[in-house]
Amino acid sequence: xxxxxxxxxIYMGPQQLGGPDDLREVIVNFIDGAQTxxxxxxxxxNSRPIAEAxxxxxxxxxxxxxxxxxxxxxxxxxxxxxxxxxxxxxANRLLQDAILRSSIFVRSDYNPDIFHQKFIIRDNRSLLTxxxxxxETDTSVNLNHxxxxxxxxxxRVYKREYDEILQGHFGKLDEGHDHAPxxxxxxxxxxxxxxxxxxxxxxxxxxxxxxxxxxxxFAIFTFASSSGIDDQMILARNAGIAVRGAMFTSQANQVxxxxxxxxxxxxxxxxxPRPGLPxxxxxxLHHKLMVIDEQLIIAGSYNYTHPANYLNDENIxxxxxxxxxxxxxxxxxxxxAGFALAEIDxxxxxxx
Length: 352
Known about the structure:
Layout: E1 4-5, E2 8-13, H1 23-32, E3 37-42, H2 48-59, E4 63-68, H3 90-101, E5 105-108, E6 118-122, E7 126-130, H4 136-140, E8 142-150, H5 152-166, E9 182-186, E10 189-196, H6 201-210, E11 215-220, H7 229-238, E12 242-248, H8 249-252, H9 259-264, E13 268-272, E14 284-285, E15 288-292, E16 296-300, H10 306-310, E17 314-319, H11 327-351
Parallel strand pairs: 3-4, 4-5, 8-14, 11-12, 12-13
Antiparallel strand pairs: 1-2, 2-8, 3-6, 6-7, 7-8, 9-10, 10-17, 11-15, 15-16, 16-17
């Protein structure tokens, strides 16, 4: 098992919960490595060390642009004295103010639903994405992953999406603008990138599950029965494929959750965190992660829900190709997938 295969890197954490990687350090180091440009699209930023890294980049003359979800900057209830620095989202506003004072380009989204991206394009050559928001909770008490790809073609795919975001093509407004999903060979491993809503990630995930020969393992924050992914898992289970998943407990208990459908079909489900766990314990299982046949990884920001597919701004990144016949490529895919699968095993064993 390896987290790094040449130009592909995968990180699992946080270390505070026994994970192998310090997710905040990974993000900060990625930003600190910028030489010419940083294009950042993230739902939420309230981690001061990450904000400081962004400001350091600007101070060394890196071109920095930042897009955020507005919901974490605006108070749901108006403050009685709006000139006082207080409120639930004050930490977010404080960091944004510091970034604005550093003369950094900042925009809040135009999407009435959720701007749910979590990616950075660095120097038009490297890409960071995954499930991790740039927050204290996501990097210290929520279970998450990060993927880094060093490849100009992958960076170009994300940069094109970023340019459309800055043109106001958010959520439903983005329909009809994206090119077809692109596949790029990186370090002899196929990388495939899809954005919601144009590329219908739900259908792509269902297609990949349909190719499974042995097993499907997943770890997911939100899994709704309104998606077709549960139906495809049930078909796989009926065909004799082993299907196992870790789900965030409070979301899995909702009436709209796919939990009962999956359990009725014999899918092995584990709920994280389980009751009565001692500290330190996860606040949330926040992954959007799947491993198929111990070879192919599906990662990114995309939860298995109807809004994620049709309303939000999302991305998924597929690492591997189940149809590959190249022994070297298959070996590389299995190395990376083994690392991701080991983290799913660990989460289930410790917290599920």
